[in-house]
Specification:
Helix content is 54%, strand content 13%. The protein is α+β, with helices and mostly antiparallel strands. The chain has a three-stranded antiparallel beta sheet with strand order 1-2-3. β1 and β2 form a beta hairpin. It is globular, with a radius of gyration of 20 Å.
Amino acid sequence: MEVTAEIVKELREKTGAGIMDCKTALSQSGGDMEMAIDILRQKGLSVTAKKSGRAATEGLIGSYIHMGRIGVLVEVNCETDFVARTDDFQSLVKDISMHIAAANPVYLRREDVPQEVIERERDIYRSQARESGKPESVIEKIVDGKLEKFFNETCLIEQVFVKDPEQKMKVKDLFQQNIAKLGENIVIRRFTRFQLGEGLS
């Protein structure tokens, strides 16, 4: 498939990558847009790894209220006030606020889950596996798999991004894309989610 200026422009708009990077990715993928995006994302991972150690002390506190019943506050940090004022960064903060309202994460990242919670989950999964008659030789693998699913469901950056129609992109992937696009380290520092009447019953 011929790599036209139009398809290069489309890929650039979708990813924020440079023109030459887009051309190269499209050539490597034979013009396949989704494969080209994957190539750029993989390339972006090496770029974002270099930026992830840099201090992010600017940013925004975003908020979102859903029908007066769910409220979210989230602090998203970047390196400069210049990036914090861009439409792309502000859109990211808004999207994360809405995601938190919809997905109800409990923790920010898996490292934040208390060890006693992890051990309690492991005990539950072991008991379930034994009760269902699974052999002892595979129980720990089952427990590890269920624990991974627990992290994916309860940790914000591990969750599938609610606005991704294919249900494939995780929140951490969204941030890696924006780090590559905006050229700065971007992190979620903290969040709070309120639900009307929560804890009163």
